[in-house]
Design goal:
GO molecular function: glutathione peroxidase activity; glutathione transferase activity
Subcellular location: Membrane
Helix content: over 70%
Shape: elongated
CATH superfamily: Membrane associated eicosanoid/glutathione metabolism-like domain
Number of strands: 0
Largest sheet: none
Membrane topology: Multi-pass membrane protein
CATH class: Mainly Alpha
InterPro entries: MAPEG, MAPEG-like_dom_sf, Membr-assoc_MAPEG
Structural class: mainly alpha
Protein name: Microsomal glutathione S-transferase 3
CATH architecture: Up-down Bundle
Strand content: under 5%
CATH topology: Four Helix Bundle (Hemerythrin (Met), subunit A)
Length: about 150
């Protein structure tokens, strides 16, 4: 039997969270562009090519930390955005809060990773991971409810 989808106005929080994730990732990409200019590592060198091999060890590490921080965000972005939107269909306030928590975790991750050393990313990573698992869980739970299994 068909189900009518009524979108709760609070779903807007999930949409805003998904948009903020995209903007945050875009800004992280801007830091890579600035690092490319600063360390003279043009495209398509991703930090392991001819241009990067001319950097000192310290500059090579600084560039690659910035590059990896952004690429890690890109790797996780589609899962985080789809999860916050799908979870928001069923639990809009919970999804919005988890999305905000994810964004905060990604901020701490980047600040720790780029700002001091790669191990300093751990607190932000854990916050983002737990938030993402929560969004996935909420979306899955809502889907199982919709299917009549719960």
């Amino acid at each position: 039997m068909p189900t009518v989808l009524t979108i709760d106005p609070n779903f807007g929080w999930s949409v805003l969270a998904a948009l903020a994730m995209g903007v945050q990732c875009f800004v992280a990409g801007g830091t890579v562009a600035a690092a490319r200019k600063k360390y003279n590592v043009p495209h398509p060198d991703c930090g392991a090519g001819r241009h990067a091999s001319k950097l000192s060890d310290e500059d090579w590490k600084k560039f690659n930390v910035i590059q990896r921080c952004h690429l890690n965000y890109v790797e996780m972005l589609s899962l985080a955005q789809s999860s916050v939107l799908l979870a928001g269909l069923f639990f809009p306030r919970v999804a919005g809060a988890l999305g905000l928590s994810y964004i905060f975790g990604r901020f701490l991750y980047a600040r720790g990773y780029v700002g001091s050393n790669p191990q300093a990313r751990a607190p932000g990573f854990m916050i983002a991971l737990i938030s993402n698992v929560g969004m996935i869980g909420a979306a899955g739970y809502g889907a199982l409810q919709l299917l009549g299994y719960l």
